[in-house]
Amino acid sequence: MRISGAQAIVECLLEQGVDTVFGYPGGRILPLYDALYDGPIRHIRTAHEQGAIHAADGYARASGRVGVCIATSGPGATNLVTGLANAYLDSVPVVVITGQVSTDLIGADAFQEVDTTGITMPVTKHNFLVNSVDQLPAIIRSAFRIALSGRPGPVLIDVPSDIQTSRLIFCHAEEQSNFSTQWKLTEQGSALLAEAVAVIGDAKQPVVIVGGGVISSGMHEAVIRLVEKIGVPVVSTLMGLGTFPAHHPLFLGLTGMHGNKVANHTVHGADVMIAVGSRFSDRVTNNKLKYGTGKRVIHIDVDPAELDKNIASHIGLAGPLEKLLPLLYERISVGNQQQWWTIIGQWQQKFTVEPNIRSLTATWMLRRVAEATFDKPFVFTTDVGQHQMWAAQNLRINRPRSWITSGGLGAMGFGLPAAIGAQVAVPDKRVICIVGDGGIKMTGCELFTVASEKLPLITIIVDNSCLGMVRQLQQLFYKQRYSASLAPAPVNFVYFAQAFGVEAHLATNQQEFEQALALALASGQASVIVVKIALEDLVIPMLVPNAPLNTHMDI
Ligand SMILES: Cc1ncc(C[n+]2csc(CCOP(=O)(O)OP(=O)(O)O)c2C)c(N)n1
User: Fold this and answer.
1) 106: three-class secondary structure by DSSP
2) Cα angle 94-95-98, degrees, rounded to a multiple of 5
3) pLDDT for residue 39 is more than 90
4) Is the dihedral of CA 312, 316, 318, 324 positive or negative?
5) 68: left (phi over 0), alpha (psi -120 to 50) or beta
6) 38 pLDDT band (50/70/90 cuts)?
7) What number is the average pLDDT over the span 192-209?
8) What is the pLDDT of residues 112-128, one digit of tens each?
9) What is the rounded average pLDDT for all residues in the chain?
10) CA distances from 143 to 158, 212, 247, 542 (A)
11) Is the pLDDT of residue 498 over 80?
12) Nearest CA, atom 13, ligand 1
């Protein structure tokens, strides 16, 4: 059939099974908006392009499908950069379509012209500038394949406006195979696998560390099966939360900068570490040079570029987890670990303190949320800061794709728009967003989208009247000189939410929070709960900067 480039984009999106896109219109993308007008694809207009791309990211993380985002040229495209970097660092499959000035104006400093592919090259897995309408379908199909295959990531397609209006003969595509089905274990890989099996078999104090790659590959069940077969303790990175149910007897919890002491001591004391789908970020390793000391590291990852990048591995296995884990499962065994579990048990006794909290703190509040939502279909998103770490420590995430956070970029402003995307992706679940009073000022305008799309998500604003995580670092390392971290003027977030037509409750004590949570859960509509907490509360435990993993700050 003979159709326009814009219509071909819509056809290709439908071909890929896309039912929802997030975006914001403008001059150079209007042909595509016009093509979307009649079509079956749901378009969600956010308040800001950053909101659109974070929403596409949240959609992808909650569903496992590709998130799609559309924006105009110039400022529309530049507003996407943070969201692209965020998806890139957390390996999230997102396809972004931007409008561009017409091909005859490219390079002329035309109105709303920026070099979008140049700007976004370092923060995309791949990007394309389309210069012929005939290439458009093939490029869109490649973009989806690249976004999803191997290590997932964001792909951007920049489409000049005249390409959107030009016509082409369009044919639907046949199915294409992906990286995973093509992958085969090489001879060298086979030898490495045998070596890994031998090293694990000899281990006296093994530990498994799971990262975000396990969630994005959907291989959580294979990892659980493997770990249960050998009965080895497991810890998780921030991105890996949800791989193991929080209450699983082999699961010791979060490791890293604000991980729990038992998990961190176990990593430190291990003689063999099996890392699955983790890139060993500096928040996980603290001091890179001391992290691997005294242990054999077996690193399993889909991306060969990750092996030996941050931590030198003794055995690096690169390939899709769905292929590698079953091969390992068939052969793996482990020696007697009774003594190791006795040591871990001693750490558990020493470090696990159940606090009796009588005031409204973030820790208490998040534990209440965890209790109220336990075993129910909830998805949590967070923004970035102290509340994010408290949430990671206390929400007790039980399922994959139910914990959505900005891990690699640590982008404030992510939480609310990501929650919007997640709520759209999984309407049969309820999304709860945990955000600080700083982050909500960045993208709180997306309550507009929450209201306009009638999304039932619950936003909990943890209001400590300061940029808490910055204040914490200034308290600990900058002699309590609170430069630019304290809020000079209070904001009434209840009024703020109400201005968008969203129901809001204020909680200044435990009882008020209980009531607010009960109302929000019962209402089935969007609501905001503003939780006032003390400004002085710190996120603990915390590793001593640059120290080994058994060295926590005395705070
Ligand atoms: C876009 C962006 N700007 C700055 C930072 C640095 N930063 C990290 S945490 C933080 C404070 C966050 O404050 P708030 O949203 O109130 O959350 P809290 O730490 O108080 O829970 C800041 C400024 C960041 N991560 N992202």
Assistant:
1) coil
2) 130
3) no
4) negative
5) beta
6) confident
7) 97
8) 999 999 999 999 999 99
9) 96
10) 11, 22, 39, 40
11) yes
12) 467
Do the Cβ atoms of 474 and 485 come closer than 8 Å?
A: yes
Which pair of structure tokens corresponds to residue 88? 């890139």
- Residue 380: its H or E element: strand 378-382
Query: Cis ω on the peptide bond leading into residue 25 (within 30° of 0)?
Result: no
The CA distance from 296 to 205, in Å, is 11
pLDDT at 180 over 90: no
Report the residue among 412, 433, 485 best suited for mutation to probe ligand 1: largest number of ligand atoms under 8 A from its CB.
412
Q: Which of 3, 66, 67 is nearest to 35 (CA)?
A: 3
Q: Is 469 in the pocket of ligand 1 (CB under 6 A)?
A: yes
Kindly state the DSSP code that residue 354 receives in the 8-state scheme: -
How far are the Cα atoms of 403, 420, 447, 455, 502 from residue 523, in angstroms, in the given order?
23, 18, 17, 12, 12
Cβ proximity of 201 and 333 under 8 Å: yes
Return the closest-CA partner of residue 500 out of 464, 459, 532, 465.
Answer: 459
Q: Does 174 have pLDDT greater than 80?
A: no
Name the nearest CA neighbour of 366 among 282, 433, 448: 433
Tell me how far the alpha carbon of residue 138 lies from the centroid of ligand 1, in angstroms: 41
Asked whether the predicted pLDDT for residue 175 surpasses 80, the reply is: no
Q: Is the CB of 468 under 6 A from ligand 1?
A: yes
Backbone angles phi, psi at 298, to 5 degrees: -110, 115
Q: Which residues are paired to 317 by β-bridges? A: 300
Q: Is 464 exposed, middle or buried (0-12, 13-18, 19+ CB in 10 A)?
A: buried
> If you count them, how many residues does the chain have?
555
Q: Map residue 399 onto helix, strand or coil.
A: coil
Which of 365, 351, 352 has the alpha carbon at shortest distance from 532? Answer: 365
Q: Which of 470, 532, 538 to mutate to test the pocket of ligand 1 (most atoms within 8 A of CB)?
A: 470
The answer to which of 65-69, 143-147, 177-181 has the lowest mean pLDDT is: 177-181
